[in-house]
Amino acid sequence: MTLQFDLSHRRVLITGAGQGVGRGLADAFAAADATVLVNDLRRERAEAVAAELRDAGGDAMAVPFDVTDYPAVTEAITQAGPVDILVNNAGNAGAEGFAARMPFAESTPADWDPFLQVNLYGVLHCTRAALPAMVERQWGRVVTIVSDAGRTGDASGAVYAAAKAGAAGLTRSIALENGRYGITANNIALGTMRTPLTEPLWAEMADSPQAKAILSRYPIRRPGLPEDLAYLAVLLASDHGSWITGQTLPVNGGYSFAM
């Protein structure tokens, strides 16, 4: 039996697809012949990725918007047309590189807001905007990229962990409410990833005490790459994944295990 992913009749919206994990997801969905709606906060990044996918023979369009702005989200998704598959990928672990870490007892609401707005409210906004049309068409997929921090907790990163756990809980609730309409909803929980934002940490990995300390907690001693999770997302979005819903599937190099 040959396992093939054919999404040629599906349209996928990937948030935060202008670089890093989101760009890897865009490449994988394009390889499965889906029409890829490339979202990014920065228009130029979304347009560049969409153009590169088209140049490679894919079908793609840029859909730039800020996931924290609900009116902008709803307007952009309405204008973009039907969304069969929503991949909630846009996230924020810190404005630049790794977040400034602090015990929760030393934090303030001003420190919490960026993490809650992107990692939780961004998922709420996009899912709320895309879901009604999926219900109407009696078919849909929601894949939310979360973090192992939301599964295990994160010392000195409590609000980020809380936001990711909240997004995962939302996705499970969407699975419960909408399975009857042919809609599945699942989470992919990531460990530490190598992306453009974190590249300064990994550039001199062999000589970096911080990188060595991070990777010592992983049985597979390397950071994750976008392609490590991309085809799992495609599987969940395909007809082959039609009986998988409400799950949180770790892709984390063994950082934490799940039954």
TrEMBL record:
**Its GO biological process terms?**
monocarboxylic acid metabolic process
Gene Ontology molecular function: any one = 3-oxoacyl-[acyl-carrier-protein] reductase (NADPH) activity
What UniProt keywords apply to this chain's record, in alphabetical order?
Answer: Cell wall, Oxidoreductase, Secreted
Gene3D superfamilies linked: NAD(P)-binding Rossmann-like Domain
In which domain of life is the source organism classified? Bacteria
Which transformation does this protein catalyse, written as a reaction? a (3R)-hydroxyacyl-[ACP] + NADP(+) = a 3-oxoacyl-[ACP] + NADPH + H(+)
List where in the cell it is found: Secreted, Cell wall
Q: Which family does it belong to?
A: Belongs to the short-chain dehydrogenases/reductases (SDR) family.
Looking up PANTHER family in the UniProt record yields: 3-OXOACYL-(ACYL-CARRIER-PROTEIN) REDUCTASE, 3-OXOACYL-[ACYL-CARRIER-PROTEIN] REDUCTASE FABG
Please state what the protein is called.
3-oxoacyl-[acyl-carrier-protein] reductase MabA
Q: Which organism is it from?
A: Mycobacterium syngnathidarum
